[in-house]
Amino acid sequence: MCGIFGYIGTEKAAPFLLEGLRTLEYRGYDSAGIFVHGHGVIKAAGPISSLEAKLPKDIQGTAGIAHTRWATHGAPSEKNAHPHHDMSGRIWLVHNGIIENYRELKEGLAVQGITFYSETDTEVLVKLIGSFYKGDLLEATRLALRAVRGTYGLAVVSEHEPNKIIVARMGSPIVLGLGKEGNFIASDPSALLVHTKRVVYLDDGEIASVSKDSFEVTTIRGEKKTKKSEIVEWEHEAVQKNGFAHFMLKEMFEAPEVVLNTLRGRLNVEEGTAKLGGLEMVEERIKHIQRLHIIGCGSAYYAGEVGRYMLEEYAHIPVEVELGSEYRYKKTYPDKKAAALFVSQSGETADTRASVEKAKSMQMLTLGMVNVVGSAIAREVDAGIYNHAGPEVAVASTKAYISQLTAFALMALYLGRQRGMSKAEGLDIVKALQSLPETMRAVLKKNDEIAKVAKKYAQYRDFMYIGRTFHSPIAYEGALKLKEVSYIHAEAYAGGELKHGPIAMLDKDFPVLAIVPQNDVYEKMISNIEEVRARLAPVVALATEGDLQISAVADDVIYMPKVHPLLQPIVAVLPLQLFAYHVGVAKGLNVDRPRNLAKSVTVE
């Protein structure tokens, strides 16, 4: 949430700052602002284009900071937009996170005669820094942060010290980019790719002083830290639309490549198993775990639910799936024979990160499944799996979700072969996984057909999704996508739960999307569809190619290829993503930037 970008170097800062904000707009688009040394601050409510319209054509300064906001404290407005300034008007700050004790800090500052103009916790923070300022911005920031409770990724500058930017991290990401024309800061490495691939990730509790050609990192307590730069693997082209109408459509069409990259080097064809190098250092501990907890939020949680079915069916290990926002608070007991797997695209999801510490305190083995190398969760867990999905720009997760499901299939194969799965069955799964990218391409060829069906249903106000076994959590994910990008009220249920209450809502104006692959619960799903038809609700069926029965009970059918049962949910989710996308487009909505949402939820 919230995008932070900064530059200090030898070139004009304003073009860099604006470009960085455009790349980071998926992290928040309620308002935006920039500060450039020698010019001052410019802010605007609304998207980046509103800020761009207000910028003078030739801003000369060579250092500055910028911010695009997802509102937490205070409504979206120019008044509440970042950067915020201290009482002197000479110190400016941009911030991502939540200062939990801002009210008591604000009261203490008010006693000193300090006044406030916004509704934000960020203004309190910068005025706290200003109250400590005695000519050393680094020290003033360090003293202020010692008084703060909460989360932050921040950048602060002083007009008295134009040759430095101070940045700090606690719970919200900050990355330094080391470039030829100067140094950069960002809340996401994707914003740095056009300038440099050499990055330095700050850890929690670290603060850095950045100049045009150097940086120094210390802790908030003043201890010096040695940080090594890393190379980001992603290409700049990955954060460009490349001719697609929306990032969301581009990222869905990258699904075959994403699956291929997730599988690359991880299939052992000779032994019929998976090679997960990130887990090798804890392989002996994994062999003896008796229970697995999967923790995630949003789409990552639903990926975990699919993973539960995969792992219990093929690896014969009991699995519990928990919401990160709840797991961190529930009563949990020490268990050295359990492992906890944390799923997060960004690797920075606040509630999931907090749950890592909870599991560690319970003496569990901690594992991660993340997409961003160097992210907080990747560094904090004992071992893990990288998705290798590349950067995902659209707010609604598509390709990262598909990568997560593919990684769970690999885990089911890996753990299954450790726990009694025959080599023959393992070889069948390996063969199916090798064919999966081509299968995803076959699904994408149905894009135009799916668009026609979606357009037919775009004007409905309500929708229900149903599925069974592996496809029950896929129904939930499909409904979530429709809610996110079309604002249609969508619910999801296991098919057998319809008659236990939800069927009361169905009528001719409440369509149902049923996921009906030809599997061992096919007849049960047909019965559920008949129950829906008896209430006159329109039915869209997602069915297996060659199914001759389904058209007799559904108003519209979207067909998908038949694959190994382990992989069927991976194939099923892509048509649901395309359906949601085309509904949103038919309604004239910005599907890349759904209202009220942000890409990476780094606040609690």
Automatic annotation (TrEMBL):
Record field: catalytic activity: D-fructose 6-phosphate + L-glutamine = D-glucosamine 6-phosphate + L-glutamate
Gene of this entry: glmS
Upper lineage: Bacteria, Candidatus Kaiseribacteriota
Active site, renumbered: C2, K599
Subcellular localization, as worded in the UniProt entry: Cytoplasm
Description of how the protein assembles with itself and partners: Homodimer.
Organism: Candidatus Kaiserbacteria bacterium RIFCSPLOWO2_12_FULL_45_26
Summary of the function given for this chain in its UniProt record: Catalyzes the first step in hexosamine metabolism, converting fructose-6P into glucosamine-6P using glutamine as a nitrogen source.
Record's protein name: Glutamine--fructose-6-phosphate aminotransferase [isomerizing]
Listed CDD domains: GFAT, SIS_GlmS_GlmD_1, SIS_GlmS_GlmD_2
First-listed, main subcellular location of the protein, grouped into a coarse class: cytoplasm
Lineage top rank: taxon: Bacteria
Cellular-component GO terms for this entry: cytosol
Molecular-function GO terms, alphabetical: carbohydrate derivative binding; glutamine-fructose-6-phosphate transaminase (isomerizing) activity
Residue stretches making up the SIS domain: 282-421, 453-594
Occurrences of domain Glutamine amidotransferase type-2 (ranges): 2-213
GO process annotations (BP): carbohydrate metabolic process; fructose 6-phosphate metabolic process; protein N-linked glycosylation; UDP-N-acetylglucosamine metabolic process
PANTHER family: GLUCOSAMINE--FRUCTOSE-6-PHOSPHATE AMINOTRANSFERASE, ISOMERIZING (PTHR10937), GLUTAMINE--FRUCTOSE-6-PHOSPHATE TRANSAMINASE (ISOMERIZING) (PTHR10937:SF0)
Catalytic activity, EC: 2.6.1.16
Entry keyword set: Aminotransferase, Cytoplasm, Glutamine amidotransferase, Repeat, Transferase
